[in-house]
Amino acid sequence: MARIVLDNHVELSEVDHGILVRQQAEAYVARNWRITPAVVKLLKDTSASGLECMIRDNHPLRKARWPNPRGVVYLAFSVSPKHQWSIAIDTFKSSTGDFGHAVFNGKYHSQFITRGLPFKFEGRNKTSGHLVVKRQHFEGTLKEVADFDHSVLSLKPRTRAASGFATEYDIQHAIISRWQDTPWGDEYEIVQDEYPVDGGLTSRRIDILARHPTNGDWLVIELKRAEASDAAVRQVVDYLRALGQQDQFAVGALQGVLVGERISANAQTLALSEGVAAFELSWPFHFNRIV
């Protein structure tokens, strides 16, 4: 069985389902990955660039961690358990033993621009997204990341309005960490956050995908900070249609949910006609169903 131990004491070994990533007392499976020369180089290069953490405090989700063999589909790297991911890679090509594009955190955007690094912006909405870097540019970009200001990825509490959330990430983190206190916590289980609708690195991503463990129904949750418009409802509908065409979603009903601090009148009207549930979320953690 292939096995590698990095200088940062992260241990990786091949198991039936992929690579078992172990960091101190925590572990998860990177599904369908294998330890190949390209992957070994990736691990050593990221560690040398200061990205020595592969398991953050709140990600992967507890239910995705070992001994759950399903794990996750990516390898991801951050500077510490207290920072967001710097890089995530979710395409491993078994035929070549190499990986494809890499996704860098969108909060590095200004530093990419300043250094003239090549990337494609994958927008999640008007104000946030990811930076997709082609495989041939990965090593050069990673060397630059070693000198980046990583404080932009800190998970330390942010300054917020007295009655609101600072970012969509704050909303997402609050819902995931307090799932049992949400309107869906008693019936649904979280499958994945940032779920790639189209299956690739440049895919649109669902904020939270959940499923009913008994009847197999699916829950697609879209989050908006401040006011959610009718465009957000159309976004949910687009996700539902896309998933409805995929075989893995053939069993169970698909239900869309929009969560925002405020839901505009137009959004409420459209949500009602499209069958999308709409909730307003107020600080610190109170849900009010609007539609």
What is this structure, in a nutshell?
With 291 residues, the chain is an alpha+beta fold.
The SS-based structural class is alpha+beta
Rg calc = 19 Å
**Fraction of residues in H or I helices:** 10-25%
Distance N terminus to C terminus? 53 Å
By oligomeric state, this entry counts as single chain
Strand order of the largest sheet: 12-13-14-15-16-17
- List SSEs in N-to-C order: EEEEHEEEEEHEEHHEEEHEHEE
Question: How many DSSP H or I helices?
Answer: 6
Your description of this structure?
- The protein has 291 residues and is α+β, with helices and mostly antiparallel strands.
- The protein has two domains: 3-153, no CATH class; 168-289, Trna Endonuclease, Chain: A, domain 1 (3-Layer(aba) Sandwich), CATH 3.40.1350.
- Helices cover 21% and strands 31% of the residues.
- It contains six helices and 17 strands.
- The protein has helices at residues 37-48, 109-115, 138-145, 168-177, 230-244, 265-274; strands at 3-5, 11-15, 18-23, 26-31, 75-77, 87-89, 92-93, 98-99, 102-105, 120-123, 129-133, 189-196, 205-211, 218-228, 254-263, 277-282, 286-289.
- The strands form four sheets. A six-stranded mixed sheet has the order 12-13-14-15-16-17, sandwiched between helices. Strands 5-6-9-11-10 form a five-stranded antiparallel sheet, with no helix packed on it.
- Helix 5 packs parallel to helix 6 (265-274).
- The radius of gyration is 19 Å and the shape is globular.
- The chain starts with a strand and ends with a strand.
- The mean pLDDT is 88.
